[in-house]
Each structure stands twice: as structure tokens, then as C-alpha cells.
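Example S7 (C-alpha cells).
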């Protein structure tokens, strides 16, 4: 373990500090304000010297790595910089024109150069869509309930070509959606956000959690993420040690045994009280997988500890609403969803639902 008390920062990103709003050490990154208890070597704990709170520790490099992974996923298919080390990563040309230079053509398609890292890329959707008529027919058949086999037969396509066209249609829609996102966010200087946190596929019990944040009044979804990577990772950890590399990846041994379901309490206060009891039963209140929990680890891909997905989610959301003067956030009754005061650095009201 390194000699420093706090896990090292990732650039300017340091998420290990007292999160009690009324505490003088709130937001302080001075190591002298804290103690690190190592009674359990696998799970070191941070203790605030002023108020005695014990906020869970995070590996800042792993939060940053998850942040970059999410940005790359959100930018997939967009005409945008794809360099993970660039400040313009994932910013679409359509809405961030000041970040790019037009840099000639590749055939009939526009080429761009990033002003940040000088990398070049081609807008593959800027040319003429020669398959537009075919793709319109394909969508018409889909919307009228035809099966894939019927569509392939009617349009003389093989299944692979069918799905290639479907992916191209989805990518073009994603380009348009990026423009709508920017217009929606730029039309207001204050807003109410609402976050939803729930199992992605409740009946599968695969441990994948879905987090979505939208504008509370209109219901327009601004960002959504899951604590799952589609690739396998070699270094998986059973216990979360924020001083170790790759600690955000969960090991398959975390999956618990099936237990008898507890009855759902009656009334709002009963449900709130039951949730608080569940949270405080964890050794790490920001990690629901530190308590006996049954789930079936996916056969492919890797699960991410939810707190890393959540912190990265809100850090990704921050640039979208930096121009807002006041922010109200309605969040689930989960500690790792309520710890979002730091990323915004604006007047903010957080309420748990």
C-alpha cells in the first residue's frame, strides 16, 4: 500500500473526502483531516477527524478509467474525436464545431481534424446515402410487424446484410439525437433532474444495474449507463481495495446464494426504513454487493462495481449542464446515487426518492 493516506488523485479528480455537508472538512482533500483505518486489510476505511464520518474510499484512477470507457461508448457511431487522452473525446462535430477543423474530403465524405490532439477522422454519414430507399423499405417492414426472414426474402438480403443496414440506421439516428440533446440543454439555465436506478433485466438476476438521468418535467433522458462491460477482464477482485489496480471489476465469487425473499413493507415510511436498514447492513454503504446478494454473473463480459459506474455517470453529465445556474436532483434512495454534490460544483439540491 502506498505511503499516502488517500488513494492518489487522477489529475484533478480526487473523490475521497468528507461528504457531510455541515462538516468543516466537507470537500477537503488534505490528508491531515482524515485517518485511514486498516483493521480489515481488504477494505481500508476513511474516517473524518472532525465529524467522525467514514465515507467509503474510491480508486480515482478507476473512476477516471470508467469515465473514459463510458465516453467512448456514448460516442460510438458519432462523428467525434475517439482519442481517450483528448479533452474532446466523444464531443460530436455537429454540436462542438469549435473543437474541430474541416480537413478536406475522403471521397464525398468530410474529413475533420481535432484541435486538441490533431487526430483526423471522417464523417462517414456526410456523404450521400445510396441505400436510403432500401433502408426506408426495411424500416417500413419492421414497423408493420414482418419477421427478419420475411424482410430478407422480400428485399433479397441475407441476415448479415439486414443487421448491417439496421446498425447504419441506428447510427444515423444517434447522430440526430446528439443534436437534439444539445438543443434541449442549451435552451435553459436551470433545471430539475431525476435519476432512476434499477436492475436492467429484473428476471435474469444477472447483477447488471441500469442508471438513467433525465429532465424531471419532460422525461427527456439525458444519459444512461450500466455497470457492465462487454469484454472479459483478467484481473477481477473479490473485495474492493481502492489501493489496487482494476478494483472496479467484480469477481464472479461475489455472487451469493439464493435466499428467501423478504416481504415488501407496507406504506412509504416502511419502505424507506427497510431501505435504510438494508444500506446500513453493508460493510460499504456505496456498494450493494458487499452484503449477501443473489445474482448470476453473466457468462460473457465483466460487471463493474456500481459506485464506479455512478460517479462516472454524473461526471459525464457535468459538462452538459455546466451553464445551468441552479440544479435540483431527485435521486434513488441509494448512497452512491446521492454522492453527486462534488461533480456539479453549483448550487444544488439533492433529494432521495
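Recovered sequence:
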Amino acid at each position: 500500500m502506498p505511503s499516502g493516506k488517500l488513494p492518489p488523485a487522477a489529475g484533478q479528480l480526487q473523490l475521497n473526502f468528507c461528504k457531510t455537508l455541515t462538516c468543516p472538512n466537507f470537500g477537503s482533500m488534505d490528508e491531515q483531516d482524515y485517518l485511514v483505518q486498516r483493521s480489515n486489510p481488504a477494505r481500508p476505511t476513511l474516517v473524518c477527524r472532525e465529524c467522525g464520518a467514514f465515507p467509503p474510499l474510491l480508486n480515482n484512477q478507476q473512476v477516471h478509467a470508467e469515465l473514459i470507457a463510458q465516453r467512448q461508448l456514448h460516442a460510438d457511431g458519432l462523428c467525434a474525436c475517439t482519442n481517450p487522452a483528448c479533452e474532446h473525446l466523444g464531443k460530436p462535430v455537429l454540436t462542438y464545431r469549435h473543437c474541430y477543423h474541416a480537413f478536406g474530403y475522403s471521397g464525398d465524405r468530410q474529413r475533420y481534424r481535432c484541435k486538441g490532439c490533431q487526430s483526423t477522422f471522417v464523417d462517414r454519414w456526410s456523404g450521400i446515402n445510396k441505400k436510403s430507399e432500401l433502408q426506408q423499405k426495411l424500416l417500413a417492414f419492421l414497423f408493420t410487424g414482418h419477421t427478419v426472414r420475411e424482410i430478407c426474402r422480400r428485399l433479397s438480403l441475407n441476415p448479415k446484410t439486414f443487421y448491417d443496414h439496421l446498425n447504419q440506421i441506428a447510427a444515423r439516428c444517434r447522430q440526430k439525437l446528439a443534436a437534439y440533446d444539445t438543443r434541449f440543454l442549451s435552451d435553459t439555465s436551470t433545471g430539475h433532474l431525476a435519476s432512476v436506478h434499477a436492475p436492467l433485466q429484473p428476471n435474469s438476476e444477472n447483477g447488471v444495474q441500469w442508471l438513467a438521468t433525465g429532465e424531471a418535467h419532460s422525461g427527456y433522458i439525458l444519459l444512461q449507463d450500466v455497470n457492465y462491460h462487454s469484454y472479459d477482464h483478467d484481473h477481477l477482485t473479490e473485495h474492493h481495495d481502492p489501493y489496487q489496480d482494476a478494483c472496479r471489476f467484480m469477481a464472479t465469487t461475489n455472487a451469493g446464494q439464493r435466499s428467501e425473499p423478504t416481504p415488501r413493507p407496507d406504506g412509504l415510511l416502511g419502505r424507506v426504513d427497510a431501505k435504510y436498514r438494508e444500506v446500513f447492513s453493508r460493510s460499504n454503504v456505496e456498494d450493494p454487493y458487499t452484503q449477501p446478494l443473489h445474482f448470476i454473473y453473466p457468462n460473457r463480459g465483466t460487471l463493474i462495481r456500481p459506485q464506479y459506474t455512478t460517479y462516472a455517470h454524473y461526471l459525464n453529465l457535468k459538462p452538459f449542464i455546466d451553464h445551468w445556474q441552479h440544479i435540483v436532483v431527485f435521486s434513488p434512495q441509494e448512497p452512491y446515487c446521492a454522492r453527486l454534490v462534488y461533480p456539479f460544483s453549483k448550487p444544488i439540491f439533492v433529494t432521495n426518492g
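Notes on this example. Helices lie at 60-74, 132-143, 148-155, 159-186, 268-280, 306-317, 335-338, 341-344.
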